[in-house]
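tmp note - TonB-dependent receptor
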Amino acid sequence: MSNSIGTVMTIKTNCSTTIRRLPAAIALAVAAIPGTAYSQALEEVIVTAQKRAESLMDVPLSVSAVSGDKMMEAGIRNLGDLTAYVPNFQKSETSIGNYLSIRGISSGINQGFEQSVVQYLDDVALGRSPLARAPFMDLARVEVLRGPQNVLFGKNSIGGALSLVTNKPTDEFEGSFMVEYEPEYNTVETQMVLSGGITNNLRGRLALRYLEDDGYFENNLTGDDEVGREETTMRGILAWDITDSLEAVLKVEVSEFDFNGRNDELTFSYPNSDPTSPFFGLTYAEAGGLLGAASGQDIGSDDGKQNYKRNTNNAENSNTDTNNITLAVNWDAEDFTLTSVTAYMDYDLEESVDSDASGFAVWTNNAEEEYTQFSQEIRLVSSGEGSFEWIAGLYYQDWDLDFNVRTPLPTTGFFSALGLLNPAVAVLADGTNWREFNGDSELYAGFAQGTWSFTDALRLTVGARYTYEDKNGYREMNFTRTSTGELDITQAATARAVFGIDYANLGEATGGVFPIHRLEDSRSEDFITPTAILEWDISDGTMLYGSVSSGAKAGGFDARGDSAAADEFEFEDESVLAWELGSKSRLADGRVEFNTAIFYSDYEDLQVSQFNGVVGFLVGNAAEATSQGIEIDGRWLITEGLTMTFAGAYLDFQFDEYDGACSAGTGLPAGSVCDYSGKANIFSPEWTANASLEYVTGLTSNIDFRGNLDLLYTDEQYVNVTLDDNIIQDSVTRVNARVALETENWTLALIGKNLTDEDIASFSTDTPLSGVLGTPSYTTYMERPRTIAVQAMYRF
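out:
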């Protein structure tokens, strides 16, 4: 299955022409020939999903490609915006991490996890959660590969891969400047690109992006608009033709994206059901009001309903700085191409989160995260001539992660008020809970894949990847007196009773700090992940394929846990065995493309993380799960100037065996374990579909009209990891539209997103500390309401 949204690299063809595995140089040459156009037919889309340039319709995978032009036109700024256009793919952002999900498979929120759906930027793996926040800029395309990508991408891509391809320097000088303004939330985005030759054999490209946004939530307590954003990205690329057959491309990218406030709010609360509790019959907001009155603290007015209003008193922020340096060297020999990709990247993240999600000064997590990564890939790709094609390579990666969280507990407010009802709790005031985690990894891999063409119509691809990885992990947790830096045993015992924190591994005092627990471990593992694909061209316009593959994702260590038990510090690897049957067809003299994919994936030992409703997380492996379904997509050139793109998916995901943290709706104490067998996973809607119409016509001799209409449907789905039926996001249909006037040099457009103003929850989690009051509650992250923006672009 393959869905193309917008133009990536195109070649006009007639219905009798079949372009298979076209080398990139030939594709570019043909595309550049003036007047290369035949009778009306869809434009051919060229992608590199299999590490060589080939037609999207010839890739035996379920893959969607979204062009840079489409992303610019539709206001697709990041992975979150992209989800509406790609079936069975979702991205959701939370206060402490990000979810990337394909066909219901994602990684939980924990700094010890690597992503099951991995981003690759110009062949460099970006497998950490904070990097999913990075904005899009000057991209040629994004390719979304569904299902395990275990050979050519390989690095933990057990659920799928997102291949982001940047625009490369051009020979001729060109440039563009774009500005977009949305008045409702005062959002301003600007982008500038300069590209061209510097000398006879040296080309350069410079891209700059800046975005500023006030936010679409109102904080009742502070009066601020949230979440405010400021994003700055700079990318420079130099391409040097060392010889006619040897090219080196150096890319340096620096980004800074900052957030102030959050896009979450209290949306649902169960009333306290304990007749002996002073909060009996009250919801979390009502119980908070009672404590606010007892402590004399203004905590704002929260009705506990979804209305884009929130009540937090601490100045929340998140600041991420990233650096990325990549050197790609390509040597075109007579029979093969040798590619070397050397990459260094790092990020620094500092954030402060008002984790109690209330106006009380209770629970503020101050976190810092530093990450560095080096990788080296060497890849050999055959020329594509003859009956046998092959790819082989070696891969090395090492990374190092430092993460810490400090949570000071104030001497006033919540604990002083709660202490009036339970004096033992008062000892928690003037305390600081803190965790430190250090992890590192060293990985070696080798891979090879070959395709045999038995006849012009029948091909077999066989490949495998061998991976060996060493990991080390260290975590220390302390609970100290803020004023003295020493642990008060009474304080620790009370914290254990109130919050369920495990202090079993008490050690000796060190420098005035008493370690609650200190855990250290290492692990190593290796995998062989094979794949086999059979392709059959049953006609000039239709290809059938079937594939079987296995995938694996390495285990690791829990960075956020509270338990001092050594056997709970480590989690194991996860694995999958996947089958896929598909077809790709060109119909109606090349005016219609229609593709299908039927998939079945059997996952074992899925890595999961669930918030326990108080202050901690449960991390482990979720035994077995099955993801199966059907995906369709296509394009239809209805008439000259009018094109439809469509896609749809049916997903049947269920846990076959899984004991996880119980939802608040069960009425069981926080941290209780429930059987989730037979239930769907988070972000697993049964049905998704989208349809886009694009109409282009000439208004005058040099001015064109371009109109786009997008209808985007998502079925109801769980958006919280404890799978509470009261927190299901209802089915929703979004409507986006764009109208534009264009000339060769400029574009003026009006862009509308979520025009029907749907309320859409992207994630929901148990409200921290609500369990302490016996009022289990949910805090929900909401997507942006309706926006209408003006966009202007000048090209030269």
